[in-house]
Specification:
The complex is a heterodimer. Chain A is mainly beta. Chain A is 8% helix and 56% strand. In chain B, helix 2 crosses helix 3 (66-76). Classes of the chains: A mainly beta, B alpha/beta.
């Protein structure tokens, strides 16, 4: 008891100190102006749930806004639960946070999540990862939009430039640090990000948004939602943006970019038990960039000013049936096409995915969810002397089954979850990815959890078939990095603990810690005998010869200081020690130095009046030695005037502290990095 | 039980977090529960119903997120021994017989007067959620105070509609003229 009081107080003080240190002025939140703290009261652990049999006296006691522990999530184990009931490091980015932070893209929004490192390389390129191993081609994070996998199986990472939705239509972004492989399959090694968009019944009517500035040059969004009848709603939307180039001094790298996207969504509820979702989108765009390309003749390397043409689309179908509170199933399938064409490399691929899950209660105190997944990815690659994938056309398939049992050890107090996924992919045998999770709820305002999981990252086309040539020790001599057809999965055993509490109505906090033990990480083998073509090629093969141990912690806190003022803060710590590898320590050094060790995010949301709001963000990112990036502090600010129920006008400053700052560099493929410039933009949003 | 709570919570509270970082806004779920509860604390005159089989109708004027929760309640609950039917009206012209009419925020103030005029004297409890709704002729109006849903009642208007409100309901309300 004393301990708990101590930690609560300590956390509060930490947040307050951090706020002052970060120079964040007073800000605030809660738009209707009259909202204070959270709930609690007589209801169960589920402060977010409402009992329909409450009488009037009870109803008038219910809080309108209830705190984050009761935030609904379903990424943890594919079932609807709440943050407070999750035995995992879960964080939810709400639409309010997205709106008030003034971000214009999904990568920017992810800066709010603890444990996620977001760093910009060029205007359209990011390095984003969970709990370390960052890089342009970071490959241990699974990202989904409405449960559609959006990472590129070619390298196991995400092309962030093409991940976009109507930001106003995001229902929430669930961010889970730590393995999520039982629920979502390999690649969810260090985390899962699930971007969930709103049901079309919640996006009825018109939305028109338009804005522009110096970096966000211009952007426009139109969405219209309607209904056939009460059970069948739809919307369609279109958006477009032009973003300016980053700062590159006299080099003047033209890395501005533009994109257009259209989409639709329909939601149909034919019966009380069923719901059917069909949605799709198409996009097209150009990303400017400059990179060094290796060529076989003098001067052996040339600078390419290029434009990547990206285009593609997705179509998704999902049918869910909820028979009763314990029983239900869901069938989902989607098909997507991705094209990415630049001069040195081009990829066309299409992917098809089928997923089925079934939940039931086989016995009292057991809630089971089980399912199966099949995925099919056909790619066509075009490379050149500097870079290619062998063979240049390849079919990758995945098949897996999973089951998880959540056992109630003590009602409303202790739960134990055991789960496992068996997965096969074209590059490997069947692999088991088990997890065990214990959740303890000491009171209805606190929860603590611990978990042990084994997760794998399946080999990708990069691991098995890459052929990358870079300039070597002498002119006309090249290193040739080669994929390894016998590349094995990288694996981790993750030990995690967490505690979250909401000691009083205005304050909640969450801490999670982990130790990850990695085996068979990707490294470089010893150089092979030179091949004299000419030119001279020194082959170096990829091998599973690195192991690493990482540890860290993430602390977040939300403090409603006053009805009109809310503070949110997070701190993330990351440490790693990677060893092994061949004579060339590239990957060892990369793992040890590619992610910032300390990261602080602070946000103040302040309602100046019923119609004016002011938000201020402070961010601190530690230096990144391997990428040669110094530490930096940045700040964003947003001022909004709600002119009427239908009209809102905002002025946003992004990265306002420095004229420009470096966030990351590409240490893998010679992309010219540019720095993030100070940005200002204005925006008008009209809804009807 | 815990599972039940989770699922019920999930169904009744489709997350609509639009306000307050890390908070869920339950405004619409709560309002739906209030509307259902009003059915228990208000007495309608006999002529409000044709016969004992006629369902209790809650009308919604204008789109409102209240609707989904209300439909879930209607599916499993009764008011005064009558099944509940939820009817959605897109505009004032579509409004048909109902016992409670909830005028959503989507309906702007300019439309109030004509609506009130049309329903004058009919046994309908008109509930709104815009400032000044009760003093402009609505019976009940929701507002938010200290993070709680509260409501004001215009007793004169309720009488005009031949509705008898229980003492308990009046005690919890702010009375306006």
């Amino acid at each position: 008891m004393i301990f708990r009081r101590f930690v609560n107080t300590a956390a509060k003080i930490l947040l307050a100190c951090a706020t002052l240190a970060g120079g964040v002025a007073r800000g605030q939140d809660a738009p209707t102006g009259s909202l204070s703290g959270p709930a609690g009261g007589t209801s169960s652990q589920q402060t977010g749930s409402l009992n329909p049999d409450m009488n009037l006296e009870q109803l008038v006691q219910q809080d309108v806004l209830v705190p984050s522990l009761s935030q609904v999530v379903n990424t943890v184990d594919r079932q609807e639960s709440t943050v407070g009931h999750s035995a995992a490091a879960v964080f939810v980015i709400t639409p309010e946070m997205i709106k008030r932070s003034g971000v214009r893209s999904i990568p920017e929004a992810l800066r709010m999540a603890p444990g996620i490192t977001v760093a910009k390389i060029t205007s359209s390129t990011w390095a984003i990862s969970a709990r370390g191993f960052n890089g342009r081609f970071a490959n241990k994070l699974l990202v989904q939009i409405d449960r559609r996998v959006v990472y590129t199986p070619t390298f196991g990472g995400v092309f962030w430039d093409i991940q976009d939705v109507v930001l106003e239509d995001i229902e929430r972004i669930e961010v889970i640090r730590g393995p999520g492989t039982v629920a979502w399959g390999s690649n969810a090694v260090n985390g899962v990000i699930n971007i969930i968009t709103k049901n079309s019944k919640d996006t009825q009517g018109a939305l028109v948004q338009s804005g522009g500035g110096n970096y966000q040059q211009d952007f426009n969004t139109i969405r219209y939602g309607g209904r056939v009848n009460e059970d069948f709603t739809w919307n369609f939307w279109g958006k477009q943006f032009d973003r300016n180039r980053g700062w590159s001094g006299p080099e003047f790298v033209r890395d501005g970019w533009r994109q257009q996207r259209v989409g639709f969504r329909t939601d149909w509820t034919p019966t009380e038990e069923d719901s059917v979702l069909v949605q799709g989108n198409l996009y097209n765009g150009y990303d400017g960039e400059r990179f060094d390309n290796t060529i076989p003749f003098p001067p052996f390397s040339e600078v390419e000013n290029d434009r990547t043409h990206v285009s593609g689309g997705d179509i998704q179908f999902r049918w869910s049936r909820d028979i009763d509170e314990d029983t239900g199933w869901q069938f989902q399938t989607y098909y997507l096409v991705r094209r990415r064409h630049l001069s040195a490399w081009a990829e066309d691929r299409d992917m098809w995915d089928v997923d089925f899950q079934y939940r039931f209660s086989p016995a009292e105190y057991h809630q089971v969810i089980a399912g199966a997944n099949y995925r099919h990815n056909q790619d066509h690659e075009r490379g050149g002397f500097s870079f290619m994938l062998i063979p240049n056309s390849f079919l990758t398939q995945w098949a897996s089954v999973f089951a998880e049992d959540k056992m109630t050890l003590l009602e409303d107090e202790m739960y134990f979850t055991l789960g496992c996924r068996l997965e096969y992919n074209t590059f490997g045998k069947f692999r088991a990815e088990p997890t065990a999770r214990l959740l303890y709820l000491p009171s209805d305002r606190a929860s603590m959890w611990a978990a042990v999981s084994r997760a794998i990252r399946n080999p990708t086309r990069f691991d098995t078939g890459i052929r990358l040539r870079t300039s070597g020790p002498a002119p006309a001599v090249f290193f040739e990095f080669l994929g390894n057809p016998n590349f094995e999965p990288e694996s981790v055993i993750a030990y995690e603990v967490g505690y979250r509490a909401q000691p009083d109505d205005s304050f909640s906090w969450d801490i999670a810690g982990y130790i990850n033990d990695y085996r068979k990480l990707r490294g470089l083998g010893a150089p092979g005998a030179p091949i004299f073509l000419p030119p001279v090629l020194i082959p170096i093969e990829l091998q599973n010869n690195i192991s690493a141990v990482s540890y860290g912690a993430e602390l977040t806190a939300t403090w409603q200081i006053h009805d009109d003022w809310q503070l949110f803060g997070s701190y993330s710590l990351f440490e790693i020690n990677a060893v092994g590898g061949g004579p060339d320590q590239f990957f060892v050094d990369q793992y040890n130095g590619s992610t910032a060790h300390n990261n602080i995010y602070l946000m103040s949301s302040w309602d100046l009046s019923d119609t004016w709001r002011f938000d201020l963000i402070g961010r601190y990112m530690d230096s990144v030695s391997f990428a040669g990036v110094p530490k930096y502090i940045e700040s964003d600010a947003r001022l909004t005037w709600t002119a009427s129920d239908n009209l809102e006008i905002s002025l946003i400053g992004q990265n306002i502290l420095n004229p420009h700052h470096l966030e990351y560099t590409d240490f893998e493929l010679g992309l010219y990095d540019t720095q993030v410039r100070r940005g200002v933009y204005g925006m008008i949003t009209w809804t009807h | 039980m815990a599972c039940l709570a989770i699922v019920l919570g999930g169904n009744l509270a489709p997350v609509r977090a639009w306000q307050g970082d890390g908070y869920i806004n339950r405004e619409h779920q709560l309002k739906a529960l209030f509307l259902y509860n009003f059915g228990h604390y208000v007495e309608w005159p006999a002529q409000a119903f044709v016969d004992a089989q006629q369902p209790f109708v809650i009308g919604l004027l204008g789109s409102s997120p209240v609707e989904s929760t209300l439909r879930e309640i209607a599916a499993t609950r009764q008011i005064a021994g009558r099944g509940i039917v939820v009817k959605r009206f897109d505009s004032h012209a579509d409004v048909t017989a109902c016992q409670i009419l909830f005028v959503s925020r989507a309906i702007t103030v300019e439309h109030f007067d004509a609506l009130i005029e049309d329903l004058r004297g009919l046994p309908v409890l008109i509930v709104g959620e815009r400032e000044g709704f009760a003093s402009r002729g609505g019976c009940v109006n929701f507002f938010i105070e200290s993070n709680k849903i509260r409501f004001e009642i215009n007793r004169e208007e309720a009488k005009q509609h031949n509705l008898r409100m229980s003492a308990k309901l009046l005690a919890l309300a702010r009375i306006v003229q």
